[in-house]
Amino acid sequence: MTADPTALDLSNRIADFAIATRAQPLPDDVAAMSSRLLLDIAGLCIAARNEPYVAAVAATTETGGACTALGHAGGRDMYGAALINGTAAHGEDFDDTFEGGPIHSSAVVWPALLAVGERYDLSGAQVMAGMAVGTELICRLAMVTPKAIHKAGFHPTAVIGAIGATAGVATALGLDRRQCVDALGIAGSLSSGIIEYLADGSWTKRMHAGWAAQSGIRAALMARHGFVGPATVLEGTHGVFSAFAPSCTPDFDKLTSGLGDRWFMPTITFKPYACGTMTQPYVDCAIELAERGVRADEIESIVCKVGEGTVHRLWEPLASKHAPKTGYAGKFSTAYCIAVSFFDRAAGLTQFTEARVSDAEVTGLAKRISYEVDPDNPYPDRFTGHIRVTTTGGEVLEITRDNMRGGAHAPLSDDEIRRKYDENAQFGGWTKESADALAEFCNGVLGAQDLRALSGFRA
């Protein structure tokens, strides 16, 4: 039994997109964005390589394989390398995001493709085609049922990421139409990832991208060897969106309209701060407040206008968001992020340590920060920020950000992206010489004959 290659279901349309994409040169903006995303992800892998959660994941993998976990000694098999790199890339919540989701793509797709490319001696062009397909698919799938996957208690990066990684790997490996359809069908059963980490700041979200990456490899290879999956995995009665987004009627035009002609992935947002996506514009507001010369003891209260869909992850329960239990939990508290960035004028890796979230001055300010839902907030189509500050003297100050910095409306320059990469590599203990060499590799992947140079970036 095989999936019907003539049915006009969504999986066949995706398969056709994958096949067409690998048969022609990538659009310039798609190729350029893929290289930028790889540079960003590589820096994050190095930054987190010595963190305890990465060590715990790495300990579950065996050395001696053909694939590289960036910054780690010894080769791994494909699945182990993808799991380690994906976990490290997403672990600090500093990786790219997509306005329209929100969802993270590169921390899933690039680890999967680097592993497969290295294992099967693929060319840079093959890998880049897979990156383009997998990432575009993740962006589009994120818009099919906006907010609903989160509402159901699941993490879209984990759920949709497995499907995107599968499409990317299938593209790179040259799977035919039937195999692509089967691979996507298999991926639906490998999708997973709940968001209960929000309750106590524990680590499970950190490994979702790595798990989705290795799931994508497995699904594509199973299909390559004849395993059959449901062709209606996305739109079916018991399909992905019925299972993971039951509160919303899927809009599959978001997936199929202009697929292959109009690309969303070049609009992906690079994060300037190491915290939750929707919090980023509020960090900019807080830094501006500090730069205006306002002192913490002059602040009576701060009220943030927010999108309703962000409340259950970033604001409630409010008491726990005022005093995060862990540094990781602080990344998902807008109140804490505003407070720490007001004092430090930064929200980088050092702002989310156990010591920093316990600082009485920071938590004291955080407890004066609350929210109100703005029914006109454009989330998730656009990420904005608005704070209303009341001083002890009765003055009211309002600061607004209409867009998230780093996105299509306010992009980071290539120099800023490279500066972020360099700072992350330095944080991870990488030498400047090694950082420059890895950056050169990332920038030159498209024209590379193979990915053998990756093995030079182990510890």
Describe the structure.
This protein has 459 residues and is of the alpha+beta class. It has two domains: 10-271 and 417-457, 2-methylcitrate dehydratase PrpD, CATH 1.10.4100; 277-401, 2-methylcitrate dehydratase PrpD (60s Ribosomal Protein L30, Chain: A, 2-Layer Sandwich). Helices cover 48% and strands 7% of the residues. The protein contains 21 helices and five strands. It has helices at residues 10-22, 28-47, 52-58, 78-90, 106-119, 124-142, 148-151, 156-173, 177-190, 208-224, 240-244, 253-256, 280-291, 311-314, 318-322, 327-330, 334-344, 354-357, 360-366, 414-427, 432-443, and strands at residues 63-67, 299-306, 369-373, 385-391, 396-401. A four-stranded mixed sheet has the order 3-2-4-5, covered by helices on one side. A hairpin with a 4-residue loop joins strand 4 (385-391) and strand 5 (396-401). Helix 4 packs antiparallel against helix 5 (106-119) and helix 4 packs antiparallel against helix 10 (208-224). The protein is globular. The protein starts with 9 loop residues before the first helix and ends in a 16-residue tail after the last helix. Residues 1-7 have low confidence and may be disordered.
